[in-house]
Design brief:
The structure is a homodimer.
Chain A (H helix, E strand, L loop, with lengths): L9 H7 L4 H8 L3 H8 L7 H14 L6 H4 L3 E6 L5 H16 L3 E6 L8 H10 L3 E5 L5 H9 L4 E4 L11 E4 L1 H14 L5 E5 L5 H16 L9 E3 L4 H13 L6 E3 L3 H13 L9 E6 L3 H4 L5 E4 L2 H16 L9 E4 L2 E3 L13
Parallel strand pairs in A: 1-2, 1-3, 3-4, 4-5, 5-11, 6-7, 6-8, 8-9, 9-10
Antiparallel strand pairs in A: 10-12
Helix pairs in contact in A: 2-3, 2-4, 6-14, 9-10, 11-12
Chain lengths: 352, 352
């Protein structure tokens, strides 16, 4: 089997060879220019007609030909939420690649929902960018069909859920990162190591905590579920769950905080309880945001190459748009690396 | 005198009433459709022709009519640089207003140059967004003419230089912020107060340090120029200049750090020298980035309502596009406010 030319729509490609714009028009009982108007996102089509045409485009898996010429010089970048310095690194990466390609970046926020709204998909279909990059965001079936019918390729970065094997995606080696963070603590001599995870619906979060478990198990240490707290990757949950962990009579001597923001929340919890980092509790983050170097003490963390991941996502989506390379199951994972600073040390005198 | 309809181009408006597209075409020795192509940013016009037409559009101050209908549903947002969490607040503000208006946000970075490149201006002229918001970025004369000829309104946010009285702009009360920060330190009993400023070419930076001087002078305290260091608003300059200040035999007991990133650099310098904040040195920042609450000790700072400023800039540019309100000299300044946390205290025992 040869890989399909446009990996995200293997079914679409097959039927695209038979269903033409004229056939769609005939079946919808409208003129070919009307189908064109729908494809171009023009407003002067009756909603009922438009829905009928969209439905036929979808069922026939229609794909626009010669898309290159009619594309806007834009790349769409969609965030689940624009809340952390995390997002800025991603924006810079995409912007770097876009600028070199003479393209501009359109930014959207799916505003806390994991799937961007219908209006967004319509706008994208109308402006036909060179590609769409989704960050921790997902497309539903009809949105994928809409983009596919306009030959707009898309790539998912660090997917929150399972993107499916036919969606190209870029991520980091989250499991290895969780493993490296926890091994570092084990090697320092810690035996009671807590964890604060991200939301369990996000694969990256699951992978990190699985790496944490694997490190404990391979070191022959017990996994105490009471020491694993489920957070949401925000500062507040690091603080709140940090208080829970550090108030225990058998409190952990080290915590893998899931990400940098939760690590900073944990710092605050420790300060409030009069505990010192790393003397009383060692802390490891994940991401290596700029702030990780600036806090006191500077944070030991797992570096995720966010800028490079975003650049890779942008290059991949442009390649897909040109019909180059990239097999169906493209999943690129860039390596994470442990950055040891001053927030980790051997278990303190309080324990000995 | 009545204010001109489009404040940024009082001269343009006068001549627009005489020079039509047909006249421009005649003078350029080309057809009217060719002038249209240039206006629409189409690639199929010879460079020499294009330059001639652009020059005539500029000298005649031509302004496209009925621009509303042919606009893309976009707002352009241009940053000087996308480096700090600062930028993210601004993006969120513009995105909020854009989403409500059914528009998407195109993001560009002028990559360290204060004036975005020529390619950028061409792209904007071609896509004709509803408006352009420039953050710490400036347009040169030809770029302003290019946007004006396409009836693309623009607003400058927190200008780096003097935007001129005919460019609408949004800022914060930087002078009052510098005054409030320094008065707070004076009221705590400090008499040797240092300052780390931003780049002197940025008005916001000048205004802050002028507020600092005013606070000292009105309190009858001498202004010691040896205690005023010129930084660049990055963490590194706070660290480096912080070391210079804190290594002096007559070191200041408090420092107004110019912005939050420099304040964090100063924290690092203090740690390195074994000085405690606020016991040995009080620190005040400016901006109130999310991280200001999270560092240890939480940072006393001047809150700049970045999100609200960005929302105001977006609303203003949309109003200008509709030809509403907004007089020529529109300059909106939103109020700053002092947020007192734990990085400031009375001069410590080390001094007494």
């Amino acid at each position: 089997m040869t890989p399909p030319e446009h990996p995200q729509t293997p079914t679409a490609r097959r039927s695209a060879q038979t269903a033409t714009l004229a056939e769609i028009a005939r079946e919808a009982g409208v003129s070919a220019p009307t189908v064109s108007k729908v494809l171009n996102g023009r407003a002067d089509v009756a909603p009922a007609t438009r829905n009928r045409v969209e439905e036929l485009l979808r069922t026939h898996g229609y794909r626009r030909r010669r898309a290159e010429a009619s594309r806007s010089p834009l790349i769409d970048l969609v965030f689940h939420e624009l809340e952390s310095a995390w997002a800025l690194e991603v924006i810079r990466g995409v912007e770097n690649v876009a600028r070199q390609a003479g393209l501009s970046v359109v930014l959207s926020e799916s505003a806390g929902r994991l799937t961007p709204g219908r209006t967004w998909a319509d706008q994208v279909a109308a402006r036909r960018p060179h590609g769409v990059i989704l960050v921790l965001s997902e497309l539903d079936e009809s949105q994928r069909a809409l983009l596919t019918s306009r030959s707009v390729p898309f790539v998912v970065m660090d997917p929150a859920g399972d993107p499916g094997t036919d969606v190209p995606s870029i991520g980091a080696t989250n499991w290895q990162g969780g493993l490296a963070a926890t091994r570092h603590l084990v090697e320092l001599g810690h035996t009671r190591i807590g964890a604060i995870t991200g939301p369990s619906r996000m694969l990256c979060s699951r992978a990190r905590v699985d790496g944490y478990r694997a490190a404990l198990e391979t070191a022959g240490l017990p996994v105490d579920v009471g020491l694993i707290k489920t957070g949401d990757f925000h500062h507040e949950s690091g603080y709140r769950l940090g208080l829970e962990l550090l108030r225990r009579p058998d409190r952990p001597t080290a915590v893998f905080a899931g990400n940098d923001l939760q690590a900073l929340g944990l710092y605050e919890a420790a300060r409030e309880l009069g505990l010192r980092v790393p003397d009383d509790v060692s802390v490891v983050g994940f991401d290596d945001l700029p702030v990780a170097r600036w806090v006191g003490p500077p944070l030991t963390t797992v570096r995720q190459p966010l800028l490079e991941m975003a650049e890779a996502a942008a290059r991949l989506v442009l390649e897909l748009g040109r019909g180059e390379g990239a097999a169906a199951a493209t999943r690129v994972e860039l390596a994470t690396s442990l950055v040891v600073r001053s927030s980790t040390a051997a278990p303190g005198v309080a324990e000995s």
